[in-house]
From TrEMBL:
This is Phospho-2-dehydro-3-deoxyheptonate aldolase. Gene3D superfamilies: Aldolase class I. It comes from Lysobacter dokdonensis DS-58. It catalyses: D-erythrose 4-phosphate + phosphoenolpyruvate + H2O = 7-phospho-2-dehydro-3-deoxy-D-arabino-heptonate + phosphate. InterPro entries: Aldolase_TIM, DAHP_synth_2.
Length: 464
């Protein structure tokens, strides 16, 4: 097999960088561990554990992202807002994989492009918080920062950061990756049988007929190709699948950052595709310092407060040599602000000729709270931001090359609206997220169909 790294632009290891140089920079969103000795012991154990991904998988993903930058692929990135240890189960993992495969089927069929499939799982155990502490009924405790740090229960024991949780997170990430790889290698993603991906909703959803027509069309196309060739098209039996998470807990990420034989530089081997969130994207901060040195493809979330000047400085630090496939910019503006905030960022990057992959996250800028205390998102706002993103990129002469979603394969009622027109009264029925609201399987597939329709609309010739 040809080495996918050969087509990538050569780059150099950043000067004065090592996996631990982030420790000399201001670090935000970091827990305070009360037992320093226990922390060091946990990190020592982590450094000795096997990696979760390989360098050649990372390099292959970087090549795919480089092709997405050129409009030859489309990135589908989705999964839980925050994984929990309790939901590391076969049903949850397989349903999450099913909905991502279903979405990619819709996108491949409609966009006529290969899809780069990246799951927000096998490591998405840390979450940023607005405040370090939470107060209830006069009691103040550390905020819940995800299962890799502490537990969601409001007791001193559960909320105290525990370094042994990093070992548990690594173990559950490995279990998740092992099961996903086994499913895919065993033919779970076989395009000869996309009907295997059906979830319970397919029989009664308003989208069922459209989905079944798509499945039948792809099945007919596969059989036609095989009739012409006289043999089975075996490369349809499996797909490439990658993992991503927000690299928030830097001691954990550092412990999994390694050099490998026959490759130069350092790789974060806890995930294929780490990203920096908006709260930790400070130019002089610890997270940017850590990210500038690893060879993984990396992403950065950018929001309405991001200025063109700050964005260009960030690009210069994270991708100074303009390496293809290296940098993805995930804009999350909110439906009410994307029209006024995104164009200037698109213009400056295009004007400077910098090579990035633009991706839309229509979830995080549209979060709101209901009167009865539920954190939710309205599907109408998610749809609106995504549609505006396509239109703004078209006007700017740039390309929207992917979507980043928080979703689940479970029948949850966390986001309002969608094909079933969920209301605030539905939230209590199946609200399971401990952090942010997710699209359910039906809303996720509806989003994929929306992307296809919007792309087709933009490609229609203008009538004289």
């Amino acid at each position: 097999m040809a080495n996918p790294d050969r087509t990538l632009h050569p780059v150099n290891l950043p000067a004065d960088w090592a996996p631990d140089t982030w420790r000399t920079h201001p670090a935000t969103q970091m827990p305070v561990y009360p037992d320093a000795a226990a922390l060091q012991e946990a990190l020592r154990e982590l450094r000795a554990l096997p990696p979760l991904v390989t360098s050649w998988e990372i390099i292959a993903l970087k090549q795919h992202l480089a092709e997405a930058q050129e409009g030859k692929r489309f990135l589908l990135q989705g999964g839980d807002c925050a994984e929990s240890f309790a939901e590391c189960s076969s049903d949850v993992i397989s349903n999450r994989l099913k909905v991502l495969l279903q979405m990619s089927l819709v996108l491949v069929h409609g966009l006529r492009l290969p899809v780069v499939r990246v799951g927000r799982f096998a490591g998405q155990y840390a979450k940023p918080r607005s405040t370090d502490d939470e107060t209830r009924n006069g009691v103040t405790l550390p905020s819940y920062r995800g299962d890799i740090v502490n537990a969601p229960g409001f007791t001193a024991e559960e909320r105290t950061p525990d370094p042994r949780r990093m070992i548990k997170a690594h173990a559950r990430s490995a279990m998740t990756m092992n099961f996903v790889r086994a499913l895919i290698d065993g033919g779970f993603a076989d395009l000869h049988h996309p009907e295997y991906w059906d979830l319970r909703w397919v029989g009664h959803s308003p989208l069922a007929d459209e989905y079944h027509r798509m499945v039948a069309s792809i099945g007919d196309a596969v059989r036609f190709m095989e009739t012409l060739s006289g043999s089975q098209v075996h490369n349809l039996n499996r797909v490439d699948f990658y993992t991503a998470h927000e690299a928030l807990l830097l001691p954990y990420e550092e412990a999994q950052t390694r050099q490998v034989p026959r490759q130069w530089g350092w790789f974060n081997l806890s995930t294929h595709f780490p990203w920096i969130g908006m709260r930790t994207a400070a130019l002089d901060g610890a997270h940017v310092e850590y990210f500038r040195g690893i060879r993984n493809p990396v992403a950065v979330k950018i929001g309405p407060s991001t200025t063109p000047d700050a964005l260009m400085k960030l690009i210069d630090v994270l991708n100074p040599e303009d390496e293809p496939g290296r940098l993805t910019l995930v804009h999350r503006m909110g439906a009410t602000q994307i029209g006024s905030k995104l164009p200037a960022l698109l213009d400056v990057v295009r004007r400077e000729g910098r090579r990035v992959l633009w991706v839309c996250d229509p979830m995080h800028g549209n979060t709101e709270s209901t009167a009865n205390g539920y954190k939710t998102r309205r599907f109408g706002n998610i749809r609106n931001e995504l549609e505006q993103a396509y239109e703004l990129h078209a006007v700017a002469g740039t390309r929207l090359g992917g979507v980043h979603l928080e979703l689940t394969g479970e029948d949850v009622t966390e986001c309002l609206g969608g094909a079933r027109e969920l209301t605030e009264n539905d939230l209590a029925r199946a609200y399971r997220s401990t952090v942010d609201p997710r699209l359910n399987y039906e809303q996720a597939l509806e989003t994929a169909m929306l992307i296809v329709r919007k792309q087709a609309q933009l490609m229609q010739p203008v009538q004289a």
